[in-house]
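Fresh eyes needed here. I'd like your take on this protein's tokenised backbone:
***
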Amino acid sequence: MNKKIGLKEKDYVLWLLWGAVVLVLAATMLFPLLRIFAELKAESFGTVFNSRKFLAVMGNSARSAFWGALISVVLGYGFAYGVVVAKIPLSKFFAMVPVLHLITPPFVGGLSFILLAGRQGFITKTILGLDVSLYGFWGLLVAQVLCFFPIAFLICAQNLGNMNGHFAESALSLGAGRLRIFFTVTLPLSLPGISASFLFILVSILSDFGNPLIVAGRYKVLAVEIYTQLTGWVDSSVSVVLGIVLLVPSVILFLIQAWLVKKYAVKTATVGGRFSSSDSVKSSLVARTLLFAVCAFLSLIVLAQFASIIAGSFQKLWGINTTFTLEHIKSVGHYGQALFNTISYALIGAALSTVLAFLAAFFVHRSSFPLKKTIDVLIQIPASIPGTFHGLAFSLLAASLNFHNAKVLVITAISVGFIPFSYRIISSSMMQVRTTLDDAAFSLGSTRGGICRTVIAPLCSEGVLSSFIYTLSRGIGTVSAVIFLVSFDTPLASLKILNLAEQGDWGQAASLALVLTILTFAILLIEKIYSWRNHGYNS
């Protein structure tokens, strides 16, 4: 049989669910983006492109994004090469350190950078005795590199790990040296991971909001300037034009990345297998020593960042009065409403995102419902759109409809913003379930809805949980989209941290960031325990 689930007149529930999925995706993915263009005014383009201020902002964004992505990829690839290929000492430990940045709120990196390298920073003031300010381009560059190089590490590590070491051994047998093997074999085969990570980080830095707000100072970038123009009631049309300027390169880079991934997936389909080679091919002692030094240095900085968040939470006045105090930790209670909102909105948003992603994956991959390609395209749109632009779109749409329920808007932004990643996780899990199980259930008289409920859903439970946990953990610390949508009555912990950092209240900012970090770790630990129980502790 081996046929995808079809349609019958009695499948009323599935029809209703299909209609709901299509309607929700169209309403949340297309309508806000189309509505935003209604705010455009022809003269606003002239205002933007004839203004030295706005041209400087564009240049700042391009400059920080390019150099941040380039340095992040160089460091991330070197880190991955040392851990996966060179197998330097403590490689397993080093492999865990960069992941810390990926499972914590994104603005923690900027906050910790100020605590370490600000005017009252531990490194700049306490150790070096310097009275300097690193606000601006260089501070932003360092903060973003530390925040985003782990992405390059993970992508490149996976690419290097799947590389067949026999290619290097063959080159060695033909008389090639280690350096030549690297440049003619390893590096060319690494291009998929390098290009994918560079483009992904480039888009991520362009849309980054938290780090520039904390670290950049007067060095304005597009993501922050869009917010300033809108919330300051300067000119909403100008904010839309700036949003489009941010959107266009993001979409182009996303499409290029998708094309490259597809292209390289075909070319490297036969290059599988864990990297394994003889001792004669392994990196020289000099190379391994250099790689160890790089990995150790980066790991030390990352760990120092998190240590500064902990230390800042228990110091009277960071950089001035190091007396131990519980005052900042106790002050977290003053932000109980913000924490409750943050957790509850993230929970609801994660649940909605996961349910919608599961239904979409079911209709696309396990059914003959119409508009499958349309659903597949619609649900991945937010992946190519900066959070700032999405927040701007929802804000303008809500204003035009005279809809001011901030709770609904924030929850919608969380569920929509992370749904492409939920969809990919669940789709990957669902495609691993053999269609022969559907056929067996059909032969036993099961309905289409019954197959979805009793066969596919249980077998995809781990993917569904991973999707929920991912959205929940990212939703807790999200900033770029929701900052356009919150109201005075709906405070969020992530935005409170940014406000405290802007005011120079580093102790309270650090303590609140510490709470969110611990919360995120706890959520991920639950998911890890569930995975261990399913696969065994020795898997």
Observations:
- The CA atoms of residues 72 and 145 lie 5 Å apart.
- The first helix runs from residue 12 to 36.
- The beta strands are 315-317, 321-324.
